[in-house]
Design goal:
It comes from Schizophyllum amplum. One of its GO terms (biological process) is glucan catabolic process. This is Glycoside hydrolase family 16 protein. GO terms for molecular function: hydrolase activity, hydrolyzing O-glycosyl compounds. The chain is about 15% helix and about 25% strand. It is an alpha+beta fold and about 375 residues long. The protein has one domain: Sandwich (Jelly Rolls), CATH 2.60.120.200. Strand 10 and strand 11 form a beta hairpin. Helix 1 crosses helix 8.
Length: about 375
């Protein structure tokens, strides 16, 4: 009886139903806590030049609206002549200075997302690692290209991590092996999850839960956002079991050898918009699937006055992060900076060769990690065993 009570208590604890607020990125202070990537897109080799914060602000590529919404966008004002082999248009990519460990919840409320021929927006995360991508792991929360109608979610990892067939998610699984170029990808089945339809429906909310039992991604169109989210503010706790329902994409830890946290380091969040490129949106067959000309991603879009990029912007009400560790929440005001709570393997390299969704999309800053505390490690390990 005592063992049963203890086991139930640990299962309750490991479920992490209650999440405590860590940080809200919103309003005039939205861009505090983000770094602007100032270089060409040398990850997916998209046809953009990402600009620094000063340039982005001065040229109207990053700003906060009168409603307090943060905007990042592609340059739609500059005339770019044709005739160049490699033509770039200015855009924005930002990365959080904070790194979020397991037992974390991330929510983003968008009223507008980028779309259009050649447009490739993403809201994703990566684990800084001394190894080559995808060591440290990557989570794609929002990703789409050109004029597709559905959001696609994915995990990217080194070899050994898969999505269970009986994962319980609502979306359509495209690939189960997380080490493939596509990652273990899931296509959203709910309406209005991407592009023009998303915007016309008033936007919506996406959520990522990183728990020892697995990674889970939800989407709600504006009219379907749960009361527990729509009625919350930056100081509210969050309960994923209250009215959230079934996630769109579910990745139970049981699908990965040695448990998930051997493949995924604590994650930094990234928002970016790239264009065309060599590895996805600009591939002739991929581009031609939703856009008219199979061979003219750059010349039909990037070249010219840029007016076709009027819809190529994120407009964000807020991004909120939470932790299941109440003590961490209380100790992390006002600006949490996290270190590794559990060990990662530094020997997992073997990144797949660069193809469609690949490789350094995902080549980033590297850093080492520190153990946070022994109790947290033991708890995560126990939770994984129970999952």
């Amino acid at each position: 009886m005592i063992f049963t009570i203890l086991l139930f208590s640990f299962h309750t604890l490991c479920a992490f139903a209650d999440y405590y607020p860590l940080r809200e990125y919103s309003g005039s202070e939205f861009f505090n806590g983000w770094e602007f990537y100032d270089y060409v897109d040398n990850t997916t080799w998209g046809n953009v030049l990402y600009v620094d914060q000063t340039t982005a602000m001065n040229q109207g590529l990053a700003y906060v609206t009168d409603d307090g919404h943060a905007v990042i966008r592609v340059d739609d004002q500059t005339y770019i002549p044709g005739g160049w082999d490699f033509t770039n248009r200015q855009s924005v990519r930002i990365t959080t200075t904070d790194t979020y460990p397991f037992n974390t919840l991330v929510l983003i409320d968008l009223v507008h997302m980028p779309y259009g021929c050649s447009v490739w927006p993403s809201f994703w995360s990566f684990g800084p690692s001394a190894g080559e991508w995808p060591a440290g792991g990557e989570v794609d929360i929002i990703e789409g290209i050109n004029l597709v109608g559905e959001n696609q979610m994915a995990l990217h990892s080194t070899e050994g991590c898969y999505q269970d067939r009986d994962n319980g998610g609502l979306g359509d699984t495209i690939e189960r092996d997380c080490s493939t170029p596509e990652g273990c990808a899931v296509r959203e089945k709910k309406a209005n999850s991407y592009g023009q339809a998303f915007n016309e429906a008033g936007g919506g909310v996406f959520a990522l839960q990183m728990a020892p039992s697995g990674f889970y991604i939800w989407f709600w169109s504006r009219d379907d956002v749960p009361d527990s989210i729509s009625g919350a503010d930056s100081k509210s706790t969050m309960d994923t079991t209250k009215d959230w329902g079934t996630p769109s994409a579910a990745y139970p830890s049981s699908g990965c050898n040695d448990t998930l946290w051997q493949y995924f380091a604590p994650q930094q969040l990234v928002l970016d918009i790239t264009l065309c490129g060599m590895y996805l949106a600009g591939i002739p067959a991929v581009y031609g699937a939703t856009c008219d000309d199979q061979y003219a991603c750059v010349t039909d879009n990037i070249v010219g006055d840029g007016s076709n990029y009027a819809e190529a912007y994120f407009e964000i009400r807020w991004i909120r992060t939470y932790t299941g560790d109440k003590a961490l929440a209380l100790s992390s005001t006002p600006s949490p900076t996290f270190t590794l709570s559990v060990p990662t393997s530094s020997t997992r390299t073997g990144a797949p060769s660069m193809t469609t969704a690949n490789n350094s999309k995902r080549r980033h800053h590297t850093s080492g990690f520190l153990w946070r505390n022994v109790l947290g490690i033991l708890l995560v390990s126990f939770c994984v065993l129970l999952s």
